[in-house]
Write a structure and sequence with these properties.
Elements lengths: L10 E3 L4 E3 L12 E2 L9 E2 L2 H15 L12 E4 L5 E7 L2 E9 L4 E6 L1 H9 L6 E4 L4 H7 L3 E2 L3 E4 L8 E6 L12 E8 L3 H6 L4 E8 L14 H11 L1 H22 L3 E4 L4 H15 L7 E7 L5 H13 L4 E5 L3 H8 L8 H18 L4 E4 L8 H4 L4 E3 L6 E4 L7 H10 L25 H10 L1 H18 L3 H5 L6 H4 L3 H11 L1
Parallel strand pairs: 9-12, 15-16, 15-18, 16-17, 18-20
Antiparallel strand pairs: 1-2, 1-3, 4-5, 5-6, 6-7, 7-8, 9-11, 10-14, 12-13, 13-14, 19-20
Helix pairs in contact: 5-12, 6-7, 7-12, 13-14
Keywords: Oxidoreductase
GO molecular function: phosphoadenylyl-sulfate reductase (thioredoxin) activity; RNA binding
Protein name: Phosphoadenosine phosphosulfate reductase
Length: 502
């Protein structure tokens, strides 16, 4: 089942080797081709932290030292599901998925067949199965699994549930894996010892197979900054359309609504894009409009987010109106940890403080532009572009970038060379509260990797609460985010995961 939240704009110019959000590239005027990412298709550029983690995982899993993405513009696309899934896009194709395996508690790459070809070309010697010459016809034509009698070679590192690359044996050839053709990719059902000691049984379930062919590796385009400049240029026509639409919408609605104007800035990319649009719509126009900037400090923000707020304030000469809630840790003892169906933290740390600020500042209410996008969730995809706040009576809200994808947002920010939150360079997709019940285990792991002391504080509370309430270790590691009722409604996400995992 696919999660369709809007049109998938992502395409690729094979001539320039650049992602383009239009049918033609603005640099070379070539027709672009569709990139077959998983819906909703909210891809973004991969930053240094993303690439470091991907390359580190490839080295650990497949034994490859080479940087397969050198001088290429790489995208990551978050696929929906109950696990951490980031599709890796390079040269306009899906190389594979970066996944945090919750069972083994480790990062791994789930390669596509094209990704497997590139791994083999780069010298992969781990997680390999070589099948005999007569086996491919059964796999290609009948969708068969790899059975023990058809195995010519298995690498010693294979464990049960590993993602394996399936190669075809060549007659009178030594096991020089670079010379063998890739037949497919799959998941092992035996470990190495079982394989060598068995005469029958399923060795691997095949996830995908294809007739052997060569990879279509496109040319290098330069270091990250150079590649970004080319991406901005290639998308200037596509961006002009969405920017003009959003700026015109903001100007028209301010006149129509007739309330004091504000921009909600959170320290995240989407609200930064809205703030930049507000400058263009209201500061750089024939009829300037004054607007306030609001920041809601929940009390559990990353320090980097607070530093970004100050940087934005100084760079653009803004006096940012701030709320400051210090009640989260106090209320924990009373309410217990927040859950996906019990987000008391939102009311206590966001809604209530912001409501007080708006009551005091705006006698007749205000009109707030927010960085909400429909590609973020099903609930957000159903939002209108203007609506009354359901929780703060004096606030009317508007989403000028409702129809933008993450790529639109990033191209716009990078074009303006705006100071975005440095957390995005550390693999973070979201930069809100350091802990949130909406987080996946992989996102939790990223926080633990980068901010161990911060997470230890939170985990310390969880352990004490678990001891008082009779909760087990699995609850501490992530179960606190759910109730049984919530867990039972995840069948769609589980199916999306299963489609990839095989």
């Amino acid at each position: 089942m696919k999660t369709i939240l809007g049109k998938i704009h992502l395409k690729w110019c094979k001539n320039c080797n650049i992602p383009v959000l239009d049918t033609k590239c603005a640099i070379c005027d070539s027709e672009t081709v569709e990139v077959k990412v998983t819906p909703p298709g909210d891809a973004r550029p991969a930053f240094k932290g993303d690439l470091d983690l991907i390359n580190k995982t490839i080295k650990s899993q497949f034994g490859i030292e080479e940087n397969l993405f050198k001088n290429k513009l790489v995208l990551v696309n978050k696929a929906p599901g109950i696990e951490y899934f980031q599709e890796i896009v390079v040269d306009g194709i899906i190389f594979g998925i970066l996944n945090f395996n919750e069972k083994k508690h480790e990062w791994k790459i789930i390669p596509t067949i094209e990704g497997a070809r590139r791994l083999i070309t780069a010298g992969c010697k781990k997680k390999l199965l070589v099948v005999k010459e007569d086996v491919p016809k059964f796999i290609l034509n009948k969708g068969a699994s790899v059975l023990r009698p058809g195995v010519a070679f298995a690498s010693e590192d294979i464990c049960i549930d590993d993602d394996v690359i399936i190669l075809i044996e060549k007659p009178d050839s030594s096991m020089d894996f670079n010379e063998l053709d890739v037949l497919g990719v799959g998941r092992s059902r035996m470990n190495y010892e079982e394989i060598v000691n068995s005469e029958k049984g399923m060795v691997a379930k095949v996830r995908k197979s294809e007739l052997p062919k060569n990879s279509e590796v496109l040319h290098e385009i330069g270091e990250f900054d150079e590649a970004i400049e080319k991406m901005i240029e290639a998308n200037k026509n596509a961006m002009q359309k969405v920017e003009s639409n959003s700026i015109g919408f903001m100007r028209n609605t301010v006149v129509k609504i007739g309330r004091p104007v504000s921009v909600a800035y959170s320290g995240g990319k989407d609200s930064l894009a809205v703030l930049l649009l507000a400058f263009e719509a209201f500061k750089n126009s024939e009829n300037p409009v004054e607007f306030d900037v609001l920041f809601n400090d929940t009390g559990i923000e990353f320090n980097e987010t607070l530093e970004n707020i100050e940087e934005i304030s100084k760079m653009y000469n803004l006096e940012i109106l701030k709320t400051n809630s210090g009640e989260f840790w106090e209320k924990l003892e009373e309410y217990g940890p927040p859950g996906r169906d019990n987000r008391w933290c939102s009311e206590v740390c966001k809604v209530s403080p912001l409501g007080i600020l708006i009551d005091e500042k705006y006698e007749k209410g205000c009109f707030s532009f927010v960085g909400l996008r429909k590609y973020e969730s099903i609930n957000r995809s159903k939002k209108p572009r203007i609506w009354n706040s359901p929780t703060i009576k004096k606030q009317m809200l508007s989403a000028p970038i409702l129809n933008w994808t993450a790529m639109h947002v990033w191209i716009y920010i990078l074009k303006h060379k705006a100071p975005y939150n440095v957390l995005y360079g550390q693999c973070f997709d979201r930069v809100g509260c350091f802990m949130c019940p909406a987080m996946e285990i992989g996102e939790i792991e990223l926080v633990k990797m980068s901010y161990p002391e911060l997470w230890e504080k939170w985990e310390g509370f969880l352990k004490n609460h678990a001891q008082k309430c009779g909760k087990d270790e699995s609850w501490v590691k992530g179960g606190w985010r759910w109730t049984n009722k919530t867990r039972s409604n995840q069948k769609q996400d589980e199916q999306i995961n299963e489609n990839w995992l095989g």
